[in-house]
Design a protein that fits this description.
The protein is an alpha+beta fold and 490 residues long. It contains twelve helices and 22 strands. α8 crosses α11.
């Protein structure tokens, strides 16, 4: 017997050891593998497969027994989530078990085999394998982590966030799209679609200052207004209706956004590069926004404009946390705990009613109008889309509204008649949102550790992880970025 790792193949036996092929199919520039079979002291270089440059491989000789291994990709430790893994002395590691009697494994995927697995793809074998332990854990009444462990972990994370500044969030290179408040909303809608983003800071050229942000939620409200028979706003007026006019004229609607019914502020909510990460996270949570600009204000009143450096998000801050504690995970007991043992997220009452909030989902044939209304009314970033068996099939997010800008689709459809499934089809050709890279649907099991959930939420553009039942993919719960930070910073 041996572990059936789909991407690691036994290719030969000699002298009591087995030649084993290790494969990293997720791209990179320089990829290494190391593990218990090298004493974790040697980094073995891996080579790209001819004709498939995103797939790296190397053959190592392993003796019978249980081995642990990790990949070192472009300076960062990685593990393959689609292979067997566990939490060990070196954090989360992949495992492979080799005994003396060997059978052939699946061969290395051919260069023509797609390797760009999306977050929606699920290793069904792994899910079925986990089903028994998952059910046993919940039905047996799992013991929750102690308050002392929670307090100790929170303290360490708080110390980290209070000793690092927003400068740690700045990328080596990048761009921030800024819109002038005097742009017509129709043009702004198309710019966000073409740039593959869902939020942009607003610049008032008359005041020479930033005055707010335009988000996907603004466009949801605008499109709802267009469909409102009693509205004075018509589609042709979007050619001349400016962002500023929209913001100033829709105070009641925008009361559901960051302004809470107040006039457009003279200066938008922002943070400075020297602000601590904890303060940035708290500001995002308190103002119920997805991002806040990092701005450098000139100390001297020399008439210079403020510098917009970056758009900070909770996912960026969470990525810093994961990167910092990845190799010392044993010092934070809470990160190793299954999420079913932690009071976190929104759950199906049949599993465990932790928050008292309803678990919001929609069927595939629900109307686009119902999805847009729900995004606003429930104040959520995305909605799980399920089939007739409540199995997870996709997710509809606020940012998906930009797909309607393509070829002016928004002017040609009736939101009450278009289904969510049809709306999602429109988004297949939409540019990636802020480096989304197709990872729109992130799933976990309720037995997965908190660290795994955090790593998935740290992906750009991901705001919620859907907790599904092993095998059936029935939705059991939702954990959002704000859930994680409110728990960690409590």
């Amino acid at each position: 017997m041996f572990s059936r790792d789909a991407d690691n193949s036994h290719v030969g036996v000699a002298g009591g050891v087995l030649a084993t092929r290790f494969v990293w199919p997720y791209g990179g520039r320089r990829v290494f593998v190391t593990g218990s079979f090298t004493g974790w002291s040697e980094h073995i270089p891996m080579s790209p497969v001819e004709g498939c440059p995103t797939v790296f491989q190397v053959i190592c000789r392993l003796s019978p027994g249980l081995h642990q291994y990790k990949f070192y990709v472009d300076g960062e430790w990685r593990h393959d989530e689609h292979q067997s893994f566990m939490t060990g002395m070196y954090g989360i590691v992949n495992t492979i078990s080799i005994l003396s009697e060997l059978n052939p494994l699946a061969a290395l995927p051919s260069p023509g085999t797609p390797n760009n697995r999306m977050g929606m793809d699920v290793d069904n074998e792994t899910f079925h394998h986990a089903a028994a332990s998952s059910e046993g854990t919940m039905q047996g009444g799992a013991i929750r982590i102690s308050e002392e462990d929670i307090k100790a972990s929170r303290s360490q994370i708080s110390m980290f966030l209070s000793s690092h500044t927003a400068y740690d969030l700045l990328p080596d290179s990048g761009k921030v799209v800024v819109l002038d408040v005097n742009l017509p909303v129709k043009q702004a809608f198309h710019i966000l679609y073409e740039q593959g983003i869902s939020v942009a800071p607003l610049w008032d050229s008359l005041r020479c200052q930033f005055v707010g942000v335009l988000s996907a939620l603004d466009f949801i409200l605008i499109l709802q207004e267009l469909g409102n028979r009693g509205s004075n706003l018509r589609e042709e007026e979007l050619e001349t209706h400016t962002i500023y006019a929209w913001k100033e004229g829709k105070h009641q609607l925008l009361g559901q956004l960051e302004n809470h019914g107040k006039p457009l502020q003279s200066c938008m909510i922002h943070a400075g590069p020297y602000d601590f990460l904890k303060d940035v996270a708290v500001k995002i949570l308190q103002n119920e926004v997805s991002t806040i600009p990092i701005m450098h204000q000139s100390v001297q009143d020399d008439g210079s404009f403020p510098q917009l450096l970056h758009l900070a998000s909770l996912s960026g801050i969470l990525k810093c946390i994961c990167r910092h504690f990845r190799h010392s995970i044993s010092s934070l007991p809470i990160l190793q705990q299954p999420i079913c043992k932690i009071p976190l997220g929104t759950w199906d009452p049949r599993i465990e009613d932790q928050s008292g909030r309803p678990l919001v989902m929609l069927k595939q044939n629900s109307s686009l109008s119902s999805a847009l209304s729900l995004l606003i009314r429930a104040k959520i970033s995305s909605i799980p889309i399920v089939d007739e068996n409540d199995s997870f099939v996709d997710i509809y997010s606020r940012s998906d509204i930009t797909a309607l800008a393509k070829d002016r689709v928004y002017a040609q459809i009736h939101f009450d008649k278009m289904s969510i499934q049809q709306a999602l089809q429109l988004g297949h050709d939409v540019p990636s949102h802020g480096g989304f890279d197709g990872q729109r649907c992130q799933m976990c099991l309720r037995t997965d550790p908190l660290m795994k959930v955090m790593e998935r939420l740290a992906n750009p553009g991901v705001r919620r992880v859907i907790i599904v039942e092993a095998g059936s993919k029935r939705v059991e719960g939702i954990i959002s970025l704000s859930d994680v930070f409110r728990f960690l910073l409590c």
